[in-house]
Design a protein that fits this description.
Blueprint: E1 3-9, H1 16-32, E2 37-39, H2 50-56, H3 63-75, E3 78-80, E4 84-88, E5 91-99, E6 105-110, E7 116-119, E8 123-126, E9 139-141, E10 146-149, H4 158-166, E11 169-175, H5 182-198, E12 201-205, E13 222-224, E14 230-233, E15 239-245, H6 247-256
Parallel strand pairs: 1-2, 2-3, 10-11, 11-12
Antiparallel strand pairs: 1-15, 3-5, 4-5, 5-6, 7-8, 9-10, 12-13, 13-14
Helix pairs in contact: 1-3
The structure holds the ligand NC(=O)CC(=O)C(=O)O.
Residues 115, 152-153, 156, 177-179, 182, 186 line the site of the ligand NC(=O)CC(=O)C(=O)O.
Catalytic activity: 2-oxoglutaramate + H2O = 2-oxoglutarate + NH4(+); 2-oxosuccinamate + H2O = oxaloacetate + NH4(+)
GO molecular function, one term: omega-amidase activity
Pfam families: CN_hydrolase
């Protein structure tokens, strides 16, 4: 069944209260415009940066996730709640929660691959200074299709996307916050790669760009089709990106170019490591 997806490219400020209020307002707007699945960006309630995570962290359920649950219920939508810094048992995680139209949490994804990079003269970022990595794959069912969740840096790991498509996902959603170095170089390329590798829709949701922030987000919230085409995108201001997802198109592309049944599983295989 086709459905309208809305990606909220939220302007995130240092005020958590403003961020929550703004998110609730734009979620409502997206639903009034016909969206059945709405997604927020990575770190939607807090500026993105290791110096902020501890101060903005919350337990789940907590203030921010209560707002998400209420917004999902009031607007009768599936809500992919971007991410928030989560505190649990003395550890911090970068966590995405997902709500069904009844306002119940149906999935929780803790960023699996932490963003630790060092590009000399450009950007050095070490999420692992304050965050711990998640250990779970995260998918959830909707009446439209199964959806897989990754957070930002998770998109660089093709194995995760492959596992999600193998589990039956037809749409992968990555709340993310690429930056002014990696954004122009890799943001679209990675989405198109994951879409083509797996013949799925890929959607990535960024915060709007704030030139005064310590970490400047690239923006360019985007949807890519299973054919690898950019079918919806934007620049870097606060906005909502809409696209009508047709899960049947995934099957169409897969039957035209049947790489899934042509894999040489006699030669190679991806296996899940159990604990
Ligand atoms: N912020 C991230 O997690 C990832 C990112 O910016 C990149 O991979 O580049």
């Amino acid at each position: 069944m086709a459905f309208r997806l809305a990606l909220v490219q939220l302007a995130v400020s240092a005020s958590k209260a403003d961020n929550l209020q703004n998110a609730a307002r734009l979620i409502k707007q997206a639903s009034q415009n016909g969206a059945k699945v709405v997604a927020l960006p990575e770190c939607f309630n807090s500026p993105y940066g290791t110096s902020y995570f501890k101060d903005y962290a919350e337990r789940i359920p907590g203030q921010s996730t209560e707002v998400l649950s209420k917004a999902a219920k009031e607007n009768n939508i599936f809500l992919i709640g971007g991410s928030i810094p989560e505190e649990d048992n003395g550890k911090l995680y970068n966590t995405c929660t997902v709500y069904n139209p009844e306002g119940n949490m149906v999935a929780k994804h803790r960023k699996v691959h932490l963003f630790d990079i060092d590009v000399p003269g450009k950007i050095c970022f070490k999420e692992s200074e304050t965050l711990s990595p998640g250990k779970e794959f995260t998918t959830f069912d909707t009446p439209f299709c199964k959806i897989g969740i990754g957070i930002c840096y998770d998109i660089r790991f093709p194995e995760l996307a492959y596992i999600y498509s193998d589990l039956g996902c037809k749409l992968l959603v990555y709340p993310g916050a690429f930056n002014m170095t990696t954004g122009p170089a890799h943001w679209e390329l990675l989405q198109r790669s994951r879409a083509i590798d797996n013949q799925v829709y890929v959607a990535s949701v960024s915060p709007a760009r704030d030139e005064k922030a310590t970490y400047i987000a690239w923006g360019h919230t985007t949807v890519v089709s299973p054919w690898g085409e950019v079918v919806a995108t934007t620049e870097h201001e606060e906005t909502i990106v809409y696209y009508n997802i047709n899960p049947d198109y995934v099957d169409e592309v897969r039957s035209q170019i049947p790489i899934r049944s042509q894999k040489r599983s006699d030669l190679y295989k991806l296996t899940k490591v159990s604990e």
